[in-house]
What we know:
Elements: E1 15-16, E2 19-20, H1 22-33, H2 46-55, H3 59-68, H4 72-82, H5 86-94, H6 96-99, H7 104-110, H8 120-141
Antiparallel strand pairs: 1-2
Amino acid sequence: xxxxxxxxxxxxxxxxxxxxxxxxxxxxxxxxxxxxxxxxxxxxxxxxxxxxxxxxxxxxxxxxxxxxxxxxxxxxxxxxxxxxxxxxxxxxxxxxxxxxxxxxxxxxxxxxxxxxxxxxxxxxxxxxxxxxxxxxxxxxxxxxx
Length: 145
């Protein structure tokens, strides 16, 4: 059975064993591997950088681990085997909504988890028209950890 390729990563609040963002990064790693990352960033975003730093990994190390694991629980098990400060990562996850509160409404709007209000409709349309080229430029200019 062939799985449908992902077109967007899971929402920011999906967790594996209480660790937010990890499933989203696993999805983005698999999307990159499939050539389907689109306008998403892997490792370049401040949130990815923040989690990767706490995991003690580079973007490429994380992507390789994520792509060889069957699911989120296997990825977390592999991370635990590799070793990281889990208490530090859990504290980061527990404060995620406070730490990244400025981004959350934008992600939810951009990914369709809430409908844009009247004044937001032209803004989101413009953002969607330019985000692909902008994220491509970001990938070239910003070195992922």
